[in-house]
## 1
Amino acid sequence: MRLQKYMAKCGVASRRESESIILEGRVKVNDLVIKELGTKINSDKDIVKVDNKIIEIEKNKVYIMLNKPEGYVTTVKDKHSENIVLDLIDGVRERIFPVGRLDCDTSGLLLLTNDGNLAYKLTHPSHEVIKRYIALVEGIPNNKKLTRFRKGLKIDGRMTAEAYVRIIKRYKDSSVLEIAIHEGRNRQVRKMCKYIRHPVIKLKRISIGKLTLNDLEVGKWRYLTRDEVDYLKKL
Ligand code: URA
């Protein structure tokens, strides 16, 4: 479909006005500014932004919370993996996708939606919302290590932002930590725990902002309530 037609279908402006917006250099397709009026896009694949905001054809928006089991990959398609999270969501016709990522070996709260704007907002580094995890780690970290964890650690050459951590259970050779971070770097919790020499044995995400798993069983999903969706949109 031609870019200006797509913009009109998304409710940005009329086709004619959309052409002016394109010529003004305010439109990006897959993060490249496009100024040619004839440009064709694939509305299933291409990400179109106007003034840096993703636009989409109005469709039925769905918002889902899944209690992801370990062993499932957080991608829409994976040729090399048998288990993808979408296999767990039955009976939803809309083309949903996961919001952010959980490692294959991490369980817990994962959001899925077809609302590109909300997904973009929730995962953008400047908006990152607080995510809470329960981690079973090797050994029992001492206070010095916990303080370093809270203040920030150099992971992949960059300091992590302030974090929350407390020990909620002590075993002989391991302990259970409650951790909260608001960044979303790759394998961040695992890397932070490894850094203080208490590698993660098991990891589960229990909340995103004020959304919590509560009693949602592992492998089960539910639609978010209206209040929950409104809350996410207001973040
Ligand atoms: N941190 C991790 O290390 N893994 C996750 O899946 C999420 C956060």
## 2
Amino acid sequence: MEISVIGAGYVGLITAAGLAEKGHNVLVIDIQKEKVDMINAGKSPLYEEGLEEILRKNSGKRLKATTDGEKSILDTDVTFICVQTPADFEGAVDLRPIKRVAENVGKTLKKKKTYHVVVVKSTVPPSTTEKTVTPILEENSGKKAGRDFGVVMSPEFLREGIAIKDFLNPDRVIIGATEEKAYKTVEEIYRGFNCPIYRTDPRTAEMIKYASNIFLATKISFINDIGNICKKLDIDTYKVAEGLSMDKRISPHFLNAGLGWGGSCFPKDIRGLVHKAKELGYEPKLVDGVIKINEEQPKIMVRLGKKRLGTLEGKKAAVLGLAFKPNTDDIRDSQALPVIEYLLKEDACVVVYDPKAMENAKKTINGRITFAKTAQEALKDADIAFITTAWEEFRELDYSGMKKPIIVDGRNLLRHRKDIIYEGLCW
Ligand code: UGA
């Protein structure tokens, strides 16, 4: 099928590359010329395992990048909208980027003679596709949705770091539409995928995306809540999680207790839905609790360090890990950031290290912190170390350069070590 994808950001580029890999002809549209040139040269503007290989294989053949949105939409049968939906200062989802795109797509649809399907892939609050995107498309095209063109909401479930694998082997594809022709068109795109396809309406599809992310974050906050109780009772939370997940109704995934969740998706989506619910007059108590537990974990971590040393004032504290999870350089809403903030409030001398995220951290973190070139440099003469990201390499580090090897482990990496003074965050 002939497909256009608007936005060569994270979701757009993975979607475009993945669909090309599956045999479709894909035009990916972006306003940034440098990005477009890179993609056409088979190079990836962002790092994601396996992405560059797919770009090299498909660029110039089944995959082309362009800045010409209008021609791309006219030349294709389906357009995926993959623009960002950032949060505004209130935590609400900023719909301005998707509204602008819908307006342009609508204007192009006006000139189109044949049926076209517009697929919203960006994460948007429930009812946005029907109440915001569709009316803008209709108004600007002068055409009727469901008759002259189709509108579908199909959320993405890609994890950073393994997004290509997730795209090519999804657990399910959700298709939220209102008419048969639109369902059929998008189902045809996913024909080569070995997974169930779930038909629903657009607002249910939108809610499935939010509910999925919130459920996963809830599992993490749940095990952290249990873990905080376990710690007081001298019980190993990881053993509890193991026993717990032997019940087939409870899957073992996302039950790793520790410093909690961060990243570009969970925090934004959770706050976005809470905001929407409150706007509608509903207080989502469980979800509020999920956020509160997550906000508490970095405080608990710093408190444990303070208890160990008596005071953190003037003490050298090494923070190992800045990325929100291992194997990425992304520090957006990383739980390491509040740990650093609280250590600074305690007047500790903070030295940080991360194998991949140092450059991003230097651009983002202001304050009295030192960026070490290596983990060993961060640990040298440190009074205490905090493990904030689950990088494998931290497991086998030499901690003997510290004044005393006191480690507060937020990611369950070091409990096997007999040569350190160990403190698990909630185990
Ligand atoms: C998440 C979802 O897992 C994807 O399904 C979804 O598509 C994506 O958001 C999105 O909305 O785009 P991602 O943000 O890449 O993916 O991160 P995850 O791998 O889910 O990890 C999220 C956070 O939870 C990380 O900070 C991680 O350290 C933490 N985590 C994860 C735990 O603390 N414990 C666990 O057991 C698992």
## 3
Amino acid sequence: MMGTELSVRLWHEDPEQGRALVEQFFAEAQRINLLMSTYIEDSEISAINRDAADRPVTAGDELFRIIQRSLDISTLTRGAFDITYESVGQHYDFRARARPDAATVAENLPLIDYQMVDLNPARSTVKFGAQGMRINLGGIAKGYVVERGIDILRVAGVRHAVVSAGGDSRLLGDRRGQPWMVGIRDPRVDGEVAMTVPLQNEAISTSGDYERYFDEDGVRYHHIISPSTGNPVTGVHSATVIGPDAVMTDALSTSVFVMGVDLGLRLIATLPDYESIVIDDEGRIFFSDGLMQP
Ligand code: ADP
Ligand code: MG
């Protein structure tokens, strides 16, 4: 679902109830996907993308709030995280190895601008400032699914669990007396991990240039787009962020990827609850100040 694999692991005294909670999580993920997927023609977000340049479009509470949060993170990251990246991003099709030519990128680049998304909280409407603008929540929706999953489990009294959606995970408690061991993928060797991090009660997200991509003439065209150039970001192979909230770690891992090692780690240094591990395009590994080097 959502172009990725969802998983949930939990301990429960009662196997029946445990299984029911797993089902409840998948149903919830499905519900969120129907709101937020740009691939589903009658999703709420598709209606916004179709009509918001012409007139204010009403968004449901939940979608409105996640768009609002996305714009707040744009402010925090000075535009590195920008859901309007889709104005250019929509012209990629990674499966078909299709990408926009330079003219298409140049023409649509001015439409990547979160400040041109006008939210009206009183009316719960979204309006775009220009024709051709699009939004896509791919950099934050999986973190949201993970948070919702954890909420479901926590309310049901589960105390040890891990919920993942692709590169985004959140851990509830520990692994019954041991920390959870979370692997960070080697960005260039399939099936290998670059390192393993012991964690409990935290969220962890990794953004990589190996999730959705194709290579052409030695250039990797991948799914994380620089809002300043309209092209896939260069310089970083993966960015991981660890912290209390999966919505934030998801959006921040995308943001740190876009900002690069220096600016990205500088941003993380201003956020006391968040840490980061960045692997650059030479395979060098950088840690934020709050993490001990192994
Ligand atoms: P993944 O776990 O699939 O690697 P990420 O959290 O790294 O996902 O987010 C990548 C997704 O974010 C892309 O597929 C795209 O939908 C979206 N995206 C790409 N560039 C940006 C950007 N500059 N700001 C916000 N979202 C982006
Ligand atoms: Mg992310």
## 4
Amino acid sequence: MVRVLFVCLGNICRSPMAQAAFERRVAESGLESEVQVDSAGTGPWHVGEAPDPRAAEIAAERGYPITHQRGRQISAEDYEGFDYILAMDRENLANLRLECPSGLHHKLQLLMDYSDLPGYPEVPDPYHGGEEGFEIVADLIESAVRGLLSHIRQNDLQ
Ligand code: 4NP
């Protein structure tokens, strides 16, 4: 089993979208029994909340609904339990590095490391912007989860 955790700040916009977009790809490939997926936020503010309606609308339009997800904050056990811990932006990554036990830092990466779109090293925080920011977020996430699944198929599921 390969375990993948997507991490953003609030766990109500970007990482729920990444979780659902990746789960859809995993299901399309028939790999549900081999890849486990979850998401979390570095911050506590939206624990227990449903996703942001703007993120939910775009995810539904694109065929990977997120309304069933609920916000949660990353916990100490997550660093042990997941194999890939993928941050949306550099601030998320820096916060993960502060908490992650030193022997497990190899698990921490930026999600966009798996994208082949040039010029987008991170998935920008869409929370304080407009609708178009969420479309860009969805485009970036979809490109990166495609690359992520092909990486996992080649490296972990042989
Ligand atoms: P997310 O977006 O990290 O993609 O879930 C945000 C959600 C909430 C806040 C910031 C970003 N906030 O400041 O409450």
